[in-house]
Q: What sequence folds into this?
């Protein structure tokens, strides 16, 4: 496979990983979110780091507010509840090394949430990701979440409640 073919394949795999992260949060499949970090860490805006699938799963399942079909808050249960969100990733810029084994990826995100039949944007910002490829495939090594535009996240994150 030549570099061009490797680059196209890498782009496809990396974008799919990024989109699966969004889908897994929105479907309340937090174990999948954790597994995306099997070889990596989530680094928050304050510099705190959460590393590995168990720690990431615990963090997301405890910090996100989940709802049943009637809109009542419920404890997290894999795919049996919902945060009532849609995470949208856009403006993806990838920089790959010459061997197509390391990738630096920057993207924008927008988070919509539907509460009380109203769909509002609750957050916007950037993801800064680092990926590495080994004989087993591509792995997300690091994701930095940079929130640039804060809306009302009090129905999404427990820490945003006043």
A:
């Amino acid at each position: 496979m030549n570099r061009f073919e490797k680059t196209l394949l890498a782009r496809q795999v990396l974008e799919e990983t990024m989109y699966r992260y969004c889908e897994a949060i929105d479907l309340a499949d937090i174990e999948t979110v954790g597994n995306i970090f099997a070889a990596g860490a989530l680094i928050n805006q304050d510099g705190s780091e959460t590393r590995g699938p168990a720690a990431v799963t615990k963090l997301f399942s405890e910090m996100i507010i989940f709802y049943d079909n009637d809109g009542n808050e419920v404890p997290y249960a894999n795919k049996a509840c919902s945060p009532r969100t849609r995470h949208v990733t856009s403006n993806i810029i990838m920089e790959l090394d010459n061997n197509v084994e390391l990738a630096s990826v920057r993207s924008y995100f927008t988070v919509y949430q539907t509460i009380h039949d109203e769909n509002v944007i609750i957050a916007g910002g950037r993801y800064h990701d680092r990926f590495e490829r080994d004989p087993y495939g591509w792995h997300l090594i690091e994701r930095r979440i940079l929130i640039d535009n804060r809306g009302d996240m009090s129905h999404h994150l427990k820490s945003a409640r006043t």
User: Anything to note?
Assistant: The chain has one domain: 3-160. The chain has a mean pLDDT of 96.
